[in-house]
Amino acid sequence: MANKLTLDSVRDALIREEDSIVFSLIERARFPYNAPAYDSSFLGNGLSIAEFYVRESESLQAKVGRYQKPEDVPFFPKDLPRPFPPTKDSQSLLYPASASVSVNEAIWKFYFTELLPLFTEKGDDGNYASSVASDFVCLQAISRRIHYGKYVAEAKFTDAPQDYSTAISSEDRDRLMNLLTFVAVEEAVKKRVEKKARLFSQNVTLDENDSDQTKYKINPSVVSHLYDKWVMPLTKVVEVEYLLLRLS
Ligand SMILES: O=C(O)C(=O)C[C@]1(C(=O)O)C=C[C@@H](O)C=C1
């Protein structure tokens, strides 16, 4: 995140994050759904391969200093080890009491139960390790994008402190939701991510007439659906929750 927080600079960061999300989904779509990777009885330790992989990966990443930034939110924050390299005390641009907001439980749920079956083929090719490694990249990219909502909220608050303070003091969630919603921006986001999915996931060949160019590695409309149904609504939840803590 840039040093100076403006709504434009945060929106630029959100746009950049779209690339990461689209590419991560394309990578995961190389493998079929692979149901055994999500079966909690498969390993015999009560955890699915996916959950085991994410827990262990987060533990390692925490040791080397990840999860110090408000947009990097772990899925399993309990008992994460402390980082052992000295971490630079980065000046957060956020209001400290609000930095801890997390909607990762909701992200975990929609990703595995609703999104994954939408963009992977049915089937089982045994590539469980590669599948869950790709899932983790998808989850982190989606989570980071959604938790950037904290910066969006801070920028909006700074632009109109009076309007927001009144709604925050009366804990008026509906008013906050109204204040921070820009329908035209949301429409543009949905169109842009669909276009990116179309461009990034086409088969590039040198033959102009090759019909392969219209075959996509992921269905572009799934990406706009992802944004419409989960990414933007959850970003707004993060914004509201952040703001409600903003004056505490
Ligand atoms: O750009 C903003 O103003 C945001 O709050 C981000 C976002 C989004 O998630 O893309 C969410 C709410 C707005 O209605 C528009 C877009």
Mean pLDDT: 94
CATH level-two architecture: Orthogonal Bundle
How far the N terminus sits from the C terminus, by CA atoms, comes to 24 Å
What class do helices, strands and sheet pairing give? mainly alpha
| Gross morphology | globular
GO molecular function: chorismate mutase activity
EC number: 5.4.99.5
InterPro entries: Chorismate_II_sf, Chorismate_mutase_AroQ_euk, CM_AroQ_sf_eucaryotic, CM_II_prokaryot
Organism: Carex littledalei
Descriptive notes:
By secondary structure, the chain is mostly helical. It has one domain (7-246): Chorismate Mutase, subunit A (Orthogonal Bundle). 59% of the residues lie in helices and 0% in strands. The protein has nine helices and no strands. The protein has helices spanning 7-28, 49-63, 104-119, 128-147, 149-159, 161-169, 173-180, 183-200, 220-246. α6 (161-169) runs antiparallel to α7 (173-180) and α7 (173-180) packs across α9. The longest helix is centred in the last third of the chain and has 27 residues, at 220-246. It is globular. The mean pLDDT is 94.
Structure described in brief:
This protein has one domain: Chorismate mutase, AroQ class superfamily, eukaryotic (Chorismate Mutase, subunit A, Orthogonal Bundle), CATH 1.10.590.10. It has helices at residues 7-28, 49-63, 104-119, 128-147, 149-159, 161-169, 173-180, 183-200, 220-246. The protein has 248 residues and is mainly alpha-helical.
